[in-house]
Design a protein that fits this description.
Elements: H1 28-40, H2 48-71, H3 77-89
C-alpha cells in the first residue's frame, strides 16, 4: 500500500521532524480535538491522504473516549473515587 501521485507513479515520501514538547498524559477528548484541528488547518500542509488518516485517528480517539465513559457508567461513585485515589497515589 504505497502513496501514488496523480500520474500513478510512486510519490516521494517526506521526512517528518519535530521535538517532544510535553510528555504528560492528556485526555482522549483532547487528543481527538487536537487531531481534528490539525487536520483541518491549512498551515499543517498535509496532503489529502495524510489529512484523512489524521481525521481517522481523531475519530478513533473520540470513539474510545465515549466507549470508556459509557463503560464506567455502571460503576458507583464510590468505586470511581477509589480508582481515582489509587491512580493519584501510584498504587
Amino acid at each position: 500500500m504505497g502513496t501514488y501521485n496523480e500520474r500513478g507513479r510512486a510519490a516521494a515520501t517526506r521526512a517528518v521532524t519535530g521535538e517532544v514538547v510535553s510528555s504528560k498524559p492528556v485526555s482522549l477528548a483532547k487528543v481527538a480535538r487536537v487531531f481534528t484541528l490539525f487536520a483541518a488547518s491549512e498551515a499543517s500542509g498535509l496532503p489529502a491522504e495524510a489529512g484523512a488518516l489524521v481525521l481517522s485517528a481523531a475519530e478513533a480517539a473520540a470513539e474510545l473516549h465515549v466507549f470508556r465513559r459509557n463503560a464506567g457508567a455502571g460503576e458507583s461513585s464510590e468505586m470511581r473515587r477509589k480508582k481515582r485515589k489509587r491512580s493519584d497515589t501510584g498504587v
